[in-house]
Design goal:
The protein is of the alpha+beta class and about 325 residues long. The protein has a domain at about 145-265 and about 300-315. The chain has 7 helices and 14 strands. α2 runs parallel beside α4. It is globular. The two termini are about 40 Å apart.
């Protein structure tokens, strides 16, 4: 819990940003994410499994029917929350510049944004039943993680850490069908590595930068690089089995939204507007209690819209 010293320090600056603004601007990833509202507590979605067969024929020949199949998946919305007390003495005596309640909600929203960005990558209902599905778990399920060591796409991640090469990165990008991915998502370690490789003599890679959504992005062959520091440099992967990771990391190539059949956040409630609950005064303490909750889970509508390059040696 914040001390009175913390409240005193926080009261020195004028509060200028609201809850919605803070969730968006504290993250490079948030402006790219696509959201789709949902009224229930779980949702179903269909994916094509096989297409109908197209054949050739001759005049008068008997034509043969073909079939197409889809698979249906159910997913429940996860409940993500943060709960924080506010000392009423501090709220009354240290609110000369900032409104302490507004400042508390701002800090809660920032923490919520960081947790969502974390869960977008690391969430796994098989690891923790209350978590939403993150990208790593979704791509493992779809065999869409290209291994840096041998270029395979296994359903159970095995191998060893291998140094990043632009050839392997480009091969992963090419796994995304229907045009280039919207973004490449990686941590800062990998951005430095990609930048170093791209600047090597004869790489043929065009690197520039562009300001988008108030952030300066490095552009790799026309694809913005989005930084997510919750992508670890010591990845073991969800169903790794004997994966011996100590330095592994992942780069993701992503499309977003239902229109692109890409990665989408299904949510109940307004987009980026948490359910803010004023619990009231605690019975045994001079505190007001506030809670913030978000209800969401994730889906990739077509596995061909997203991919990842896994098992990259972050120390190479």
């Amino acid at each position: 819990m914040p001390t009175l010293t913390d409240y005193n320090r926080l009261s020195q600056d004028v509060l200028t940003s609201g809850v919605f603004d803070d969730i968006v601007t504290t993250s490079e990833l948030a402006p790219w994410l696509e959201f789709q509202g949902h009224s229930g507590n779980a949702f179903l979605y269909d994916r094509e499994s096989t297409l109908p067969t197209v054949s050739t024929t001759s005049v008068g020949a008997t034509l043969t029917d073909s079939t197409m199949t889809t698979s249906q998946t159910s997913r429940s919305l996860a409940q993500i929350y943060v709960q924080l007390p506010l000392n009423r003495f501090a709220m009354q005596t240290k609110g000369n510049v900032n409104d302490q309640k507004a400042l508390h909600l701002q800090k809660m929203s920032k923490a919520m944004a960081r947790k969502i960005e974390d869960l977008v990558v690391t969430g796994s209902s098989s690891t923790a039943a209350t978590e939403p599905e993150g990208l790593t778990a979704l791509l493992i399920d779809d065999s869409r993680l290209l291994m840096a060591d041998d270029g395979s796409t296994p359903s159970s991640i095995t191998g060893s850490e291998t140094e990043l090469t632009l050839d392997r990165l480009d091969a992963m990008i090419d796994m995304v069908e229907g045009g280039k991915p919207t973004v490449l998502m990686m941590n800062k370690t990998m951005r430095r590595k990609v930048t170093s490789l791209a600047r090597s003599t004869g790489s043929g890679v065009v690197l520039n930068s562009e300001q988008l959504f108030g952030h300066q992005y490095t552009i790799y062959n026309g694809i913005p690089i989005v930084i997510n520091d919750f992508i670890t440099n010591s990845e073991t992967y969800e169903n790794a089995g004997s994966w011996p990771s100590s330095t592994a990391t992942t780069i993701f190539a992503l499309k977003f939204g239902d229109g692109n059949q890409g990665f989408t956040i299904k949510h109940n409630g307004e987009v980026l507007e948490p359910d803010i609950q004023d619990i009231g005064i605690r019975e045994n303490k001079n505190e007001d209690l506030y809670r913030m909750m978000v209800y969401f889970n994730t889906v990739i509508f077509s596995k061909l819209s997203c991919a990842g390059l896994a098992g990259i040696d972050s120390e190479a």
